[in-house]
Amino acid sequence: MKSKHVLFLSLLLIQMGCNSSTIDTNLPVDESIRLNQIGFYPDQQKIAVILDHEGADDFVIWDLEKEDIVYEGKIAGETTKTLSGHDSRIADFTPFTQTGDYILVLTGVGKSYPFRIDSHINKELGKASIKAFYYQRASVELDKSHAGIWARPLGHPDDQVMIHPSAVSLTRKAGDLVSSPKGWYDAGDYNKYVVNSGITVGTLLSLYEDYPAYFQKFDLNIPESGDQIPDLLDEIRWNLDWMITMQDPEDGGVYHKLTTAKFEGMVEPHLAVSQRYMVAKSTTAALDFAAVMAQASRVYKAYFPEESVTYLKAAEKAWNWAKTNPDVLYKQNEMNKTFDPDIVTGTYGDTNVDDERIWAASELFVTTHNLTYWEELEEADQSFKLPSWNQVTWLGYYSLLRHQDSISLLPQEWMATLKINLLAAARTQIEGVGSTAFRNPMETNVRNFIWGSNSVAANQGILLLYAYKQSNEKVFLEGALDNLDYILGRNATGYSYVTGFGSKTPKYPHHRLAESRPDLPPLPGFIVGGPNPGQQDGCTYASSFADESYTDENCSYASNEIAINWNAPLAYLANALEAISQ
Questions:
Q1: Is there a shared CATH topology between the 2-117 domain and the 123-497+560-581 domain?
Q2: Which residues are annotated as catalytic?
Q3: Domain extents for the chain?
Q4: What confidence tens digit (pLDDT) does each residue in 240-278 have?
C-alpha cells in the first residue's frame, strides 16, 4: 500500500508542479469543498461535498503532521443540484479511520479546510456549547479565571425590578420593586423570558437525564467547578434560581418576562441600565415553568433535597394557576393599548397552550406518578411535532419514553403508539437524504429553513438520537451525525455556524456581548440562527435561496443572532454524540 501511495504522490507532484512540503501550505483553500470543519469519529461516515469542478476526479487525504498522503479516492460521478443550481458530488473517505489532522486535496485544484479524526472529536465543542451559558449569566461579574479575555463587570443585578401595570396582583402594585436576579440573557439582547427559558432548561435537563454518567466528571471551568454537583447542573441552576423568582408567591401565576421597555443599545451589560420590568402573567409561562420545575425536582433531588421540594411545590402551584386561567395569552400589542410604558422587546407570544399543558402534565406525572396528570394525557394528540419554543409537546413525550420502565401506570398501547410515532417521524427525517446535495436530513425539506433554522437541524438530531436509543438502528445515529456535519460546514454557505469552532465561522454575530467589545473575537460555543429566507432584518444577503440566506453581519438578527434555545439543542446533540461514542 505504501508503494502505491508513493507512486500516486509522485504523479500528483508532477501534475501540480510542486514538492511534498508545499502541498498543504501553498495550495489555496477551495471553498467549494464542503465538510465538517471540526472532524469525525474514526468509525463514522466521512464525506465531503464538492461543488462544481466537473473536471476533478481524484482526491487525497493529506496528513498535516507526517506531510504524506494517507488515503486516495475517486469523487463520485453522480451529480446532484443544490437549491441554487450548483452541481454537487461526493468525496467519500469513510474507510480511512486513523486519528490525526488532515486536509482533503483535490488533484490540481485546491485543498479543504483542516479537520481532525479523533475518538473524542466533539468533546470540546460539547463543553463550549454549555460554557456559552456561563457567558450569558446576568447579575454576576465574570472573572478572568473562568471567562478569560471575555471577563466583564457585573451587569443587571435585577434587585430593583419594577412591577409593570400589566403585572399587578392583590399583593403587588404597579411600580412596586421586586428582586429577580441571576438567569441567562436570552439571546443577543439582555432580557430574560420564561417561555424561552422553558425549552432551554428542559432540553438541558433532558440531556443530563439521558446521559448522567457522562456529566459526572465534566469540567466546564465555571465558579462552581469542583463541588459535588455536575457542572451541567450547576450551570442550569443559575437559571432556575432566576425562574423561581418569576412566580407570584401569592397566587402561583408566572410573569411572562423580565425586560426593559425597549431593547438596550449595543453596550456592555454594566452600561445597560434602563429600568427593568416584570411584565404580565401568562398561561404559557406558567405551564412552561411548571414543566421545568417538575423536571428539576426529580433531577436535583439527590443533590438538593430541600430545593427539590421547593421546585415541585412551585410546579404544582403554577399548574393550578394555569388550570384556573387556561387562556391568559400574552398579546403584547393589545397590552400596550392599555398599559404604559409600552413594551416592545421579544414577544414569545403563543395562541395555543395545548402543547405546554401536555409538557407540564408529562413532567409532573413522571415526577409524582399522580394520575391526575395522566388524565390530561390519555386523550392528548400523540403525533410528532419537532420541539421549538412554541411547540413543546414532545419535550414531555421524550420524558415519558425516558422513564417508561419506572412508571408501571403507563398503558402499554398508549406508549406503543408514542414509540411508533417517534420512529416514523425519525424515518421521515432521513428519507431522501441521499438525493440532497449536502447529504443531511436538514436539506430534505426547504421549509426547514426558518428563523433559527440551525436549531431545527439540532432538534432533528435529538429526534434521531431518541430513535436510535429506542431502536438501536444505526441509520438514525448516522442521520444525527449528518446534521452535525451540516452545522459544522457541510452546507450551502460553507460556514461552520458555531463561533470559534472551524476555519470559517461567524465573526460578527448579532450579540450585544460581542458587539459591545469589537476588539475581542466573538465568545466561543454559540450557534447562530442560520439561513433564513425571510431575511426580516433588512441586511444585505448574497443569496435569496433558502439554504444560502445567511450573512455574517452584526445587523442580521434574522440569520446571525444567538439564542439560548438554539444553543441548548446544539449542546444536546454534540454532548450526546460524545457520550454515545464512549
A1: no
A2: 189, 510, 552, 561
A3: 2-117, 123-497+560-581
A4: 999 999 999 999 999 999 999 999 999 999 999 999 999
The CA–CA distances, whole Å, from 555 to 170, 518, 559 equal: 42, 14, 9
Quote the CA–CA distance of 110 and 76 in Å, as a whole number.
17
Three-class DSSP category at 166: helix
Burial class (CB within 10 angstroms; exposed 0-12, middle 13-18, buried 19+) of 149: exposed
Cα of 481 vs its chain's centroid, Å: 14
Terminal CA-to-CA distance of the chain, rounded, Å?
A: 31
Nearest to 282 by CA among 159, 195, 222: 195
CATH architecture, domain defined by 2-117:
Sandwich (2.60)
* pLDDT tens per residue across span 319-336: 999 999 999 999 999 999
Residue pair 365/377 in contact (Cβ under 8 Å)? The answer is yes
Cβ–Cβ under 8 Å, residues 220 and 204 = no
Please identify which residue in the block is written with the cell numbers 410515532: 421
Q: Which residues contact 552 (CB under 8 A, 6 or more apart)?
A: 495, 506, 507, 508, 509, 560
The C-alpha cell at 98 is 486513523
CA–CA separation, 489 and 309 (whole Å): 45
DSSP structure class, residue 526: P
C-beta of residue 243 within 8 angstroms of C-beta of residue 197: yes
Rounded to an integer, what distance in angstroms lies between the CA atom of residue 328 and that of residue 349? 11
Report the CATH fold assignment for 123-497+560-581.
Glycosyltransferase (1.50.10)
- Which DSSP state fits 427? H
| pLDDT average, residue stretch 491-499 | 98
pLDDT tens figures, 330-359: 999 999 999 999 999 999 999 999 999 999
Residues in Cβ contact with 31 at an 8 Å cutoff, skipping those fewer than 6 apart: 494, 504
Closest CA to 204 of 581, 580, 576, 460: 576
Residues in the chain, total: 582
CA 24, CA 114: separation in Å to the nearest integer? 10
pLDDT at residue 494 tops 60: yes
11: amino acid identity, one letter: L
Do residues 425 and 465 make contact, with C-beta atoms less than 8 angstroms apart? no
Mean pLDDT of the chain, nearest integer = 95
Nearest-angstrom CA–CA distance, 22 and 28: 11
